[in-house]
Amino acid sequence: QMGLAENQLCFNLIHEWLLKNPEASICTAQGAAEFRDIAIFQDYHGLAELREAVAKFMGKVRRNRASFDPDRIVMSGGATGAHEMIAFCLADPGDAFLVPTPYYPGFDRDLRWRTGVKLIPVVCESSNDYQITIEALEAAYETAQEADIKVKGLLITNPSNPLGTIITKDTLEALVTFTNHKNIHLVCDEIYAATVFSQPEFTSIAEIIEEDKICCNRDLIHIIYSLSKDMGFPGFRVGIVYSYNDAVVSCARKMSSFGLVSSQTQYLIASMLADDEFVDKFIVESRKRLAMRHSFFTQRLAQVGINCLKSNAGLFVWMDLRRLLKEQTFEAEMVLWRVIINEIKLNVSPGSSFRCSEPGWFRVCFA
Predict the structure, then answer these.
(1) Angle formed by the axes of helices 276-303 and 263-273, to 10°?
(2) Active-site residue, selected from the candidate residues 26, 156, 166, 191
(3) Which segments of the protein form a coiled coil according to its record (predicted)?
(4) Peptide bond into 70 cis (omega under 30)
């Protein structure tokens, strides 16, 4: 199974912490005394302890170059719920978000299925390592205008899924300028922030808007975060909307009652993230193990003549199999994918599922 972006490399550290801190769970003898207080109705805003711990953790994984206000954190059932929540808050049915390609296939579900929102691809190409350009953004924006579609925002993923790359500081500054000029929202999915394992370092949009040279309407800036990738907890469904817009925070809080994180989960995670020694060790060790796995994987692929896009983040590589296609078409890509699935018995993801603009690329998860 190399199609699921799961981070299982540091489960032993989590296991060790749980054994040392049994009182963190209300389902143990040591934690049972707190069962009643956690089992009854809780504040829909989420446990204060968790929001404070998450805010601190978000700062830590960004190397404390940005700080976060716990009162701006809105809890949701995973990043899936957070994305849908922000779409409901910012757009009406028929409105659109610009999304650079290739992008996470789940966005078509998360942002569209129940909201009626459209996604307009911003075509990025391998010739410049899929960097987002203002020219591509303007082209996508004009396409939407010509179709009489109202663009409400730009959605970016940094670090990128599926590329495993980071968006440069200069590009982020240009994106803020673009969205401010168009008066549209900038939604930044940063759920892989702690998976950056080598240079260049990750820059959060939270850092960019603090720069003196950036003229920015903060009401247009929103961050999506979760603990699914950075901590390896997709089953816990801990998602976060962090908005600099008071009206969005208020609206999202009201909507969060439809997708709450269980109080038991909140209590456990709050205890874990409040342990500074553990968190610091986890972040460092996770990056180290990701770097080792990435290096091992890409080097072995290179030995058999298979290259990958140069990357330094995420739980996957963007593998180039264009030379193995019988012809440069997406139909040929699917033929090759079926060979990999049915004959080699590996589950990898074809680039076409990520709306990639050219055939022959595959995402392969290694963590």
Answers:
(1) 90
(2) 191
(3) none
(4) no
| CATH class of the domain comprising 22-275 | alpha beta
Q: At 334, give phi and psi (nearest 5°).
A: -70, -35
Q: Is 152 a catalytic residue?
A: no
> For this structure, is 229 an active site residue?
yes
d(CA 102, CA 288): 27
**Catalytic residue list contains 244:** no
Is 278-365 the same fold as 22-275? no
41-97 pLDDT, tens digit each: 767 677 888 899 999 999 999 999 999 999 999 999 888 999 999 999 999 999 999
Q: Taking a C-beta distance cutoff of 8 angstroms, is the pair 172, 137 a contact?
A: no
Average pLDDT of span 329-334? 97
Mean pLDDT, rounded, for 90-112: 95
Set 118, 132, 167, 189: catalytic member: 189
Q: What is the mean pLDDT of the chain?
A: 92
Q: What is the pLDDT of residues 239-286, one digit of tens each?
A: 999 999 999 999 999 988 788 887 778 888 989 999 999 999 999 999
Q: State the catalytic residue, choosing from 118, 221, 223, 229.
A: 229
Among this protein's residues, is 37 annotated catalytic?
A: no
Tell me the domain boundaries of the chain: 22-275, 278-365
4 contacts 106 by C-beta, under 8 angstroms: no
User: Domain 278-365 adopts which CATH fold?
Assistant: Aspartate Aminotransferase, domain 1 (3.90.1150)
